[in-house]
UniProtKB/TrEMBL annotation:
Coiled coil: none annotated. This is peptidoglycan lytic exotransglycosylase. Residues 118-313 form the Lytic transglycosylase MltA domain. Transmembrane segments: none annotated. The keyword Amino-acid biosynthesis does not apply.
Amino acid sequence: MFKRLITLASALLLAACASYPPPGGSSASSPVRYQPTRFADLPGWDAPLAGESLAALRASCRSLQGKPQWQGACSAAAAVDAANPQAVRAFYEQRFMPWQLSESGKDSGLITGYYEPLLAGSRSKSAQTPYPVYGVPADLFVLDISAEQRAQPQLVARRGSGNRLQLVAGKSVAGPGEIQITLADFITDSRTRALKGRLDGNRLLPYYTRADIDAGKGVASMPVLAWAEDETELFFLQVQGSGRIQLEDGSFIRVGYADQNGHGYKSIGRWLVDQGQMRLEDVSMQSIKAWIAANPQRRAELFAANPSYVFFKQLPANDSGPLGAMGVPLTGGYSVAVDPRYIPLGSPLYLATTWPLDGTPQPLNRLVHAQDTGGAIRGGVRADFFFGFGAEAGMYAGRMKQSGKLWLLLPKGMTPAANP
């Protein structure tokens, strides 16, 4: 045993001299790095680990257990006593290796928060509930494209099943029954994996913006899942990506993200700052809502600054959390949204940040799990902390704008550069 510990310590010492590029990336093209470290170096690691962190990993394992490098850790997680903090800590230390993330030489980044809101609404439109919660439009078409295809000025597609389009390889001019796509019509970047648009004759054009939809364009093709009382709360439901709607009889409808109109997310908080309406340090969900209440005549102008529009689907009504990008329920206080280019979905993360409270900063050090994504979550040292459901969760989430550090936990023997 003693000899084995010496060997392991030597291996860790050698590993600590190296850093790794992001998954699938190269050291020359990305500013994100992964530095192997020790659990003892994680702030607050010696505090009791809550059983919820293990429950979140078990949820992730529903998707991860089919991957060879995760099978051992997922199988072992099923046998750990979640009520025993020492057993939970020992499991992670025995099965995982922590890697500290840094970006452009900085090991701290922005940690924000989100939650599952509660809206008042109805199944039918009325003077009290005039704002529609839309499902996916029938005229929204999606074409998956690769990085190479994003560089081509003209593409040709044909209709597939449902709302999917299929690329016609080797063609740049559409023939009969085919669809012409001019890439210059669309705004794309390195994260663009799909074009979303509408058909105009044999051309694919960008889908309607938020301002267009609010003006009534395309709404005839959009199913209405429910009607909401408050337009501002409906906007923030779209920002959060999921929520519950309480009907007149006290029952609930749960809705979750189904699709999006293809336009990039733009922060309305940033718009208020740029317009001289608010200081950057004062921006929060609460301050934005207060500004809207004081300036109702400018609400439409403010919302139009974010052209992105989210469409929902109805989810089963249950007491578990909303579904994240992995398709598993999120755990309040133990799930985060990340940029999957740098942090593989399902991975445990150790987060070191502070609570969004006035006064002396209070540490928020916690083992969380990367189970969701978001349009505004970009970068390697970047996370959106899921606070859970309800008003208290919304209070914390709306004010969360902290600096924090992240450590990626991977099964021993697996390096970030080898992530599938």
